[in-house]
Amino acid sequence: MQLIEIAELLTSQPAVLSSLVVIGLALCLIGYRIFRVYSAVIGFLIGVLAGIYIVVNYYENAVVAILASALAGAVLFALIDEFGLIATGAVFGYFAGLYFLPEYQIYALALAALFGLINLFVEKPMTVIITSVLGASSIALAVHMGITGMHIYDVIADPRRTFDMIFSNMYFNLLWFTLVITGIITQYVAHKEEVEEE
């Protein structure tokens, strides 16, 4: 199988939708428990972006540079929880800023910095809320894409429209809100049971 065939398979509609739903359910229901894995994935993705930057500007061997930086990012984020906490809070703050004030990107950057720092100091509640929101958003986006036939490339082309897609009508609003509340309650109940068992 050629590299281009693998890329087409991974970006096919069924693969993207099922990935969004599975990742969304995991984040929504057990996001705090799997935070180290989630953090490593964030580090891997940031490493891939750093590797692409290195390849474009400095290095010729693309595969080696991208894989090395991706693995380094994954290991670094898995070992140092604070990096994952900052990145999670920053992504949440950035998208919240884009949603509420889309014309003023500077506020999105300020909210990203603010939420990144807040997530360091109020780790448990913020991580539970953020992973529930991100998981619910992933599932609602997958449902919207499945119903409308929209492809992942349409979402990547303009990520600011993601919230408009998720909240496009009352049913999506209800789905998203129900998933967020269910995720928060499930994560807190699971944590409470863990504490009681110890």
Automatic annotation (TrEMBL):
The chain positions of domain TM7S3/TM198-like read 20-188
Membrane-topology annotation of the record: Multi-pass membrane protein
Name the coiled-coil region(s): none
- The lineage's top-level taxon is Archaea
Transmembrane spans? 12-30, 37-56, 62-92, 128-150, 171-190
* InterPro entries given in the database record: TM7S3/TM198-like_dom
Location within or outside the cell: Membrane
- The residues the entry assigns to the signal sequence are none
Per UniProt, the keywords (alphabetical) are: Membrane, Transmembrane, Transmembrane helix
Report the GO terms under cellular component.
membrane
Q: Which Pfam families match?
A: TM7S3_TM198
Entry protein name? TMEM198/TM7SF3 family protein
Q: What is the lineage of its organism?
A: Archaea, Methanobacteriati, Methanobacteriota, Archaeoglobi, Archaeoglobales
